[in-house]
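Structure, all two chains, one model.
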Amino acid sequence: MLFTETMREEIVGAALPDLTKQQLLKALEDKQITDAQFEQIMTGVHAEFKSTRIEPLEAVGVIAAQSIGEPGTQMTMRTFHYAGVAEINVTLGLPRLIEIMDARKEPSTPTMTIHLSPDYNNDRDKARMVSWQIEAAPLHEFGDITTDMENMQVLVHVNEAVLAKRKISMDLIAETAQKKIRERRHYRDFEAEVVEQDHVILFTPKDQAKYQNLFQLAEHVRNVIVQGIDDIERVVVRKESGEYILYTEGSNLKDVFEVAGVDTTRTRTNNISEIAQVLGIEAARNAIMAEALSTLGEQGIKVDVRHIMLVADMMCMDGEVKQIGRHGIAGEKESVLSRAAFEVTVNHLLDAAVANEVDELNGVTENVIVGQPIQLGTGDVKLIAKPRT
Amino acid sequence: MSIRINVLDHVMVPDHQAMSEEEVQALLARYSITFDQLPKVFHDDPGVRQVNGKVGDVVRIIRQSHTAGIAEAYRLVVRRPKK
């Protein structure tokens, strides 16, 4: 007898993980199978599934800690690697793993992988156009900058060819330069003027008395970013599996999402706190898992995803990304003794004494300290009497 | 943000759904837990804002799981504490 519709329904309705159901359906499709055989398979699968489930009160945290910690000892202490892309430097190995677990606000080498929308991703010139919009370009890349000490002026001789290449007008450059020097660099004592026929932008300090002002202004003018996103220092365009992808040094997810041509469904960064801000805590959880897995995997270390899932879940439980250490999960435990057992013992005990804190002795550590059975395994069995009514 | 993007379209963001009162009660009964034992999510989280979750709501999150294929998770919407 062939695999029937009722069998399919039984599989779909079974209390099994979705993946197992799909595998079952795929395996059984178009197979000759009797009802008895089907029953046998289903009971076998159910029993197997039950045996793979973790038992209640199993100390999964300790197992996860050990399973990530031991392979971690084999990781290279210091590796700087080029992530397959021409000269983009990315921290990998142990330093990166520590960075992820510590929930740093910014990684030491932030990078983004920017995917482009379909009308941009198979044309090198269009991809380059998008990259101009993203890569931070200081004013000195648009032409020569000279300081005229006689007339107390800073002159920017704008190169027309660069303007044409980067598709930006001189007025726009002059305008953004002024705005950014005032807002981002907090330097306000100057005036600017565009001399169209000479292709020159003229900057004059308000206070003409000191040369110091002139040199300060010249410095600001040289380095002010007039095109692109301030945090993104470099962009590399690469062709990968049939489409153009931008790799960046520096990261700013929010601003990159607003650039035309960027695919906002696939673009990602390695800055987890930025992901939490822009895409939410669930995306941050996924990012922690992906980053941890790839960091370990890159070193040839295989750690089961379930351990990393547990860590990521713990870090994202309260709606924000918390670090594993003193200022996060370990430091916010309910129990005084458990916290004191971790780091800065005296401070915790002292604070607890001042605040008149009570330890309920619910966890493992605190019960070990006071010498009681811990609430795991056989230690958790309690007798509950039901009063006869 | 000038252009509001739908964060749920991003590959890293799993689907979020606001849950009805009855669904929440059924969930709490199923696991025999109280409201505040659920994992939290802040009210201004982009995913929550996309489904118009209010403080006190529970959102269902349908994750793509490495081990189970599809896994459901639940989060209680709470106000973001002031720093």
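Chain A touches chain B at residues 17-22, 254, 257-258, 264-266, 268, 275, 278-283, 286-287, 289-290, 305-306, 309, 313, 316-320 (CB under 8 Å).
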